[in-house]
Amino acid sequence: MPSHLPTRQPVTCALCANESPHSPAHHEPDIEAPDLDGRPSQRELLLHHRLHTCPSCGYCAEDLSVAHPSADAVVRSEAYRALDGGQGRILGVHQALRRVMLADAAKDLDGAVASRLRAAWVMELHDRTKPAFRPLSEAADLLLATPPPAHWEPSGDVDWMGWRGLQRVDVLRRANRHEEALREVTRVREVRTSPLVERLLTFEEVAIARGDTEPRGVREGLGIGPRHGGKEPRDLLLVYLHGYYRHLFTVMERRASLLEAYDTESGTRWATDHPQVLALLSEGKEGLARHLERRLLAEHPDTVVINRCPKCGALARTPNARQCRACPHTWRETSH
């Protein structure tokens, strides 16, 4: 039976040269929208954002083969070794706190903020009743001590212009630094922001006004609700194609297939301003599914199977199914 978990690979520790097996840091990108402070989904946090620990010296990192020169002294310190051991929740928290110590020693400001946020996320993941105010407050202090980024948007993404500033706002809100958070909202708006980020900034203002310090997600901020929560019917053909052939989608097709709509004062709109994505969605998700079916069958005729019932034409559940889900017809006798 094939495994869906990444294959463990040998990694040599940059501090003690011990070789130990670890799962690779990278895997298929997360499809869930993050929280407003940047927290990924639970799956992404536990897999893609996992930390590895050298079983010999205790060095903890995303990549054990790389270490800052100051790391050796930190790993040998009593405070670092006091965070040794534990399993499950305790291990995750200890790893996150070790990364805080290593980032501070390396004078890596971005890493110091990121490691504290990771520590807060891990703590709250395992105990949802206790907001991790200490690491959040420390992250807020570091953010306030540094100038805001010159460019707010990640990688020039037109949909998320202002996202990095929005993250700063949310960290300050969650750390109960509401006055600073409101000042940051004003600062972000002085830079060009996308309609999506503007909508989320307004959501932040409302949350700040009611003294909210709870984690809030992008989907909640846009008013979309849980994924596939029944707001609109799912197109069966698109679900089929995404489930079995998404590796053949282009980047824009994959993005369009996962996109959802949200309500505005002027009506419902797709959660994007990207012209290529909007063009793919010009006839809705059904039109996108028809486009994908035509393209995939034309370009991959020996790979793609659109399995429909020979009697009524309904789409089967899988490429190998031999029973219709819409009528009683079966065609197992024709299978090989």
Describe, in plain words, how this protein is organized in 3D.
- With 336 residues, this protein is mostly helical.
- It has 14 helices and 6 strands.
- Strands 1-2 form a two-stranded antiparallel ribbon.
- A hairpin with a 6-residue loop joins β3 (52-53) and β4 (60-61).
- The radius of gyration is 24 Å and the shape is globular.
Biggest sheet character: 2 strands, antiparallel
* N-end to C-end Cα span: 22 Å
How would you state the average pLDDT, rounded?
A: 85
Shape: globular
- Computed structural class: mainly alpha
Q: Fraction of residues in helices?
A: 40-55%
Strand content: 5-15%
Q: Strand order across the biggest sheet?
A: 1-2
* Strand tally: 6
Using only C-alpha atoms, the radius of gyration works out to 24 Å
Features:
14 helices; two-stranded antiparallel sheet; 6% strand; 43% helix; mainly alpha
In short:
Helix content is 43%, strand content 6%. It is mainly alpha-helical. Helix 7 (163-174) packs antiparallel against helix 8 (178-189).
Write the layout of secondary structure elements.
Blueprint: E1 9-12, E2 19-22, H1 42-46, E3 52-53, E4 60-61, H2 71-76, H3 78-81, H4 89-105, H5 109-126, H6 133-144, H7 163-174, H8 178-189, H9 195-209, H10 218-222, H11 236-245, H12 251-258, E5 261-264, E6 267-270, H13 275-280, H14 284-299
Antiparallel strand pairs: 1-2, 3-4, 5-6
